[in-house]
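REVIEWER CHECKLIST
Item 1: Sequence provided? yes
Item 2: Single chain? yes
Item 3: Sequence as submitted:
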Amino acid sequence: MSTTVKSKKSNRLVPKLFAVRKDLTKAQLIKDLVSGVIVAIIALPLSIALALASGVNPEQGLYTAIVAGFLVSFFGGSRVQIAGPTAAFATIVAGIVASDGMSGLIIATILAGIMLVLMGVFKLGTLIKYIPGTITEGFTFGIAVTILVGQIKDFLGLTFEHAPVETIEKIEEVIHCIGTFNPTALIVGVIALAILIFWPKKLQKIPASLIAVIVTAALVKLADLNVNTIGDLYTISSAPPKFSAPDFSLDIVKAQLPNAVTIAVLAAVESLLSCVVSDAMIGSKHNSNMELIAQGIANIGSSLFGGIPATGAIARTAANINNGGRTPIAGMVHAVVVLLILVLLMPYAALIPMPTIAAILFIVAYNMSGWRGIVKTIKTAPKSDVIVLVTTLTLTVVFDLVVAICVGMVLAALLFMKRMADVTEAREFKEPDENDPEHIRFRRIPKDTKVFEINGPMFFAAANKFNYAVHKSDFKVLCIRMRNVMAIDAAGIESISHMIESCKKHNIRIIFSHVNEQPLKAMTHAGIVDTVGAESFRANIDEALAYASELTEGKKVLSDSKDNS
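Item 4: Structure as written out by the authors:
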């Protein structure tokens, strides 16, 4: 009884902020405040870099960190989740902005937010785990590749003649414009990259990205180097986020639905993945449905206040944990500190060199790529999983995430069905050897009785394996052993119906042994139980064979049961 109550409580849609109030001591509050400030410093250059990678202005990345970061912490289902712009959305957002502008992105993000809220309300948080890991690995690595390719231009200081959106087109443009290479930009980029790689090995408390930004900005400014900065390419605003109602129309909504679905699915997957990782780090348990609702609210809020799509950020969440954050207060403090930086210090962001932004995104791409997992999967996983992974990865790079996820899911489903069909077997069961260690102890098979055993799910992809059960009529009773059939679909029901019809034609009585819950419900619903009679369903093989013995040896019993066969 107590277990049931606890389970119900854990499924309630209550923000974690209110659930952990009793744990908020003075000492923990101080830790959360300090952690929030540190995470904000980490989030500052990342939010600007990811905004630029997404094709929007720098301050829009900060708007996202402020609005979405605060709302996810306030409404979320995790103790330590830090939300904001992430690399996973960069290519998607850039594509939407390039084709439909900010108005299209706002509508797509709002629709995605509504979808996320509905997913949480209808308790669909646990369904995210059914997306195969190979698809997640594939599109994550693919996104990392697209981010890396997109930053080659600024890292080398190239001047593009066109503004390509697709990854392949960007590679072609890099090759075409390689003559505009700026060695000074490369030197600044390499210095930033070196700081990002080696600084954490010596001093982890101060974010390496902040040091890289300060050092390279000072270098470019003081030495008057010929290197593009954010201020050279963008107009930066230090105004706080302001509410702006979008213009809705049915045509825009229809056009943005596919993008909204992609944003919603990706936000759900990345957020819940971040929650799982953080749970393992602090020994806690998140509320997945409440987290989805919070992500939906955050994305709606972010789009209405000038931001871009947001989700849980694994790196920033880990930084929060490592600096002592244990309640949602840390995430809320992080958002407030980013707001203060935006209002007071944003003009200085104009001095950040573009090669430094590229270097930061190179590190982001490397960290998110999960290349070690890719290598391990290719070495150890079945070929079908490798096919799904490589296909998803390739389609993400060559086309986009929508195509990659759709094709990946379909391919994974088809390969899964083939795998299930391959392991499903249907065979005549012979009397086992008593000396066999796998010997199943039941009575000897009675005279004029045939035992037919099915192992694995009975579904359409394996339906043709069940058609030879009654190929001759030299027996009086057919016993169908189904203890290893955990699931059955309409095609499986149809196969059983054909067996029953064949048995009826040959005056053979059919008995079912050990039918599990789902198949029994399906067979009852289909009228099979009424057709053959409830007495023909036996709990185990011993009872089934004992009943078969009665039918074959007792003529009265057999003749009485012919109408039910």
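Item 5: Key structural point noted by reviewer: The mean pLDDT is 86.
Item 6: Recommendation: ____
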